[in-house]
Design brief:
By secondary structure, this protein is of the alpha+beta class. It has 4 helices and 5 strands; from the N terminus they run βββββαααα. This is Flagellar biosynthesis repressor FlbT.
């Protein structure tokens, strides 16, 4: 069995299998079983979903870490939003990334889907001249120093 060790700071938020957890102090935790989780800056608040690419990310996030009853509607919303974005964009590379993201989500690899959607968000920010979403010192989708992101 593989484990994942994460180091989280005071105030960090983590969602595991749909349950939000806020850390009151610095903690080092070990996930010893497969879990659906995001932490820190990987988590987008609902009010952050204010552009087409960010709405896709939020829908995929819901499909990944939402409660059991939220996952399928989140995936359905992602399908619709991705189809709309693909139709509206003139960028072949963005179309390809979005198609790959949806394929990953439908294969229940939402972590990969989110990683790709994050790249689309960065592209959208550049094209539209938007400020980037706040980020951590490292890319939030790079594996933690002590393990792989999938426990």
């Amino acid at each position: 069995m593989s484990t994942l060790v994460l180091e989280l700071r005071q105030g960090d938020l983590m969602v595991v299998n749909g349950a939000p957890i806020r850390f009151r102090n610095r903690a080092r935790i070990e996930l010893a079983a497969k879990a659906r989780f995001l932490f820190g800056k990987q988590i987008m608040a609902p009010d952050g979903a204010n552009t087409p690419a960010r709405r896709i990310y939020f829908a995929l996030q819901t499909a990944y870490i939402g409660g059991e009853e939220e996952r399928e509607p989140g995936l359905a919303a992602a399908r619709r939003l991705i189809a709309e974005f693909i139709e509206a964009t003139t960028s072949p590379s963005v179309r390809e990334m979005l198609a790959h993201s949806l394929e990953a989500a439908e294969a229940d690899d939402c972590y990969l889907a989110l990683k790709i959607a994050r790249r689309v968000m960065r592209h959208e920010e550049e094209v539209l001249g938007l400020p980037p979403l706040p980020s951590t010192r490292r890319d939030p989708f790079e594996p933690p120093a002590h393990g792989h992101p999938h426990a």
